[in-house]
Design a protein that fits this description.
Blueprint (H helix, E strand, L loop, with lengths): L1 H42 L18 H21 L3 E6 L8 E5 L11 H10 L9 E6 L5 H15 L3 E2 L3 E4 L5 E5 L1 E4 L12 H22 L7 E11 L17 H4 L5 E6 L7 E2 L3 E4 L4 E5 L6 E5 L6 E3 L4 E2 L1 E9 L20
Parallel strand pairs: 1-12, 4-6
Antiparallel strand pairs: 2-3, 3-13, 5-8, 6-7, 8-16, 9-13, 9-16, 10-15, 11-12, 11-14
Helix pairs in contact: 4-5
Length: 352
């Protein structure tokens, strides 16, 4: 019994001892921590240990200035991402269009007065049947057949494979034989491989396609086909994503055809490859009023035709990948600038 009584009393005493020991340990830990801090303070001259990379810079109204910088950065991003204007699709690649028209007011430069466009307008009014009732543009996927588009693509590839520019834009003019090679042009018909590269059937197909587009331009713009002539330059183009080798490779700048080529009165394009399948980028973009851009996505066999004045300022979006093939067919009302259909026999000096 005695031993049991002593056994009952000991747990309480043991617990008190354990409690005292825990308290002593905690006091020792706190003391050690204080001692360590004191030692660190003594090593650093009595000051707390500084941050590893130094204190963060502070300046008056820091929060206000930070927000202002963020707002300015946001405005800059919005400006540069919206400067090309709102895009409105005029023709998507997957659409099959019989005819899609846009009528436009002819540019103010058509008015009689001073300047090159005024002289052009005066010239057009002197030729009966050459002034359009309304300026504008037309897109059609039903004018040229799939077979004709494929034949034209093969004609283009055959000639362009004999040369190629240093940059991403190469051209081939079947009328003059001009072919991009490096930084300049050669006359393809004067080379050993180029002099017999095409057959009569190739030139017949070329003429057939040209005449279809010729009649369509005359009909849509209500001008007489008898006073509408094929003009220079009419050419095939091949565009890739190679960086420009010369200024002629920079096709993505907005321009007016009549400013670039004085003989142009009506411009047409025949697309020979498909946007989104054969290449990415390379859309044709009309720069319209009120900062709006009308976009045409190339489709093989698609024809785009438009008046060549400032009302149809445009550019070609830079090709990001793949190869884009097209043909530019231009028309004039001035017989002095008329050219005949190509036959591979008449050799003219290629432009330099």
């Amino acid at each position: 019994m005695e031993s049991e009584t002593k056994a009952v009393k000991r747990p309480g005493k043991s617990a008190d001892v354990s409690k005292n020991r825990d308290g002593a340990d905690k006091k020792g830990t706190v003391k050690d921590s204080k001692t360590s801090d004191k030692d660190d303070s003594q090593q650093t001259g009595g000051n707390p240990t500084p941050p590893k990379f130094g204190p963060m810079p502070r300046f008056p109204h820091q929060r206000v200035w930070t927000r202002a910088v963020m707002i300015i950065a946001l405005l800059i991003v919005v400006y540069f991402t919206s400067k090309n204007g709102k895009e409105v699709p005029l023709a998507r690649q997957h659409e099959i269009l019989h005819q899609r028209k846009q009528s436009l007011d002819c540019s103010d430069s058509y008015q009689i007065g001073s300047g090159a466009f005024s002289r052009w307008f005066s010239f057009l009014t002197s030729i009966s049947g050459c002034v359009p009732d309304k300026c504008g543009r037309l897109i059609s996927d039903s004018l040229i057949t799939v077979g004709e588009a494929q034949a034209m693509l093969e004609i283009a590839k055959r000639g362009l494979n004999l040369g190629g520019s240093l940059g991403g834009a190469s051209i081939l003019d079947l009328h003059s034989g001009a072919l991009s090679v490096g930084r300049t042009f050669i006359n393809m018909y004067m080379t050993e491989k180029g002099k017999n590269i095409y057959r009569k059937s190739d030139f017949d197909t070329y003429k057939q396609v040209r005449m279809k587009i010729h009649r369509a331009v005359a009909q849509h713009f209500k001008v007489s086909p008898d006073v509408l002539y094929l003009t220079h330059p009419t050419f095939f183009s091949r565009l890739t994503n190679l960086p420009p080798g010369t200024e002629h490779d920079e096709y993505w700048h907005p321009h007016v055809d009549k400013d670039t080529y004085k003989s142009f009165h009506y411009t047409s394009l025949l697309y020979l490859s498909d946007y989104g399948e054969d290449f990415d980028g390379g859309r044709f973009i009309f720069v319209d009023k009120d900062n709006v851009n009308s976009t045409v996505e190339p489709r093989k066999g698609r024809v785009s035709m438009f008046t060549s004045g400032k009302e149809n300022t445009h550019f070609v979006e830079r090709v990001r990948s793949g190869t884009r093939f097209a043909m530019t067919i231009s028309f004039t009302c001035d017989p002095k600038h008329a050219i005949s259909d190509p036959n591979g026999k008449v050799i003219k000096r290629a432009p330099k």
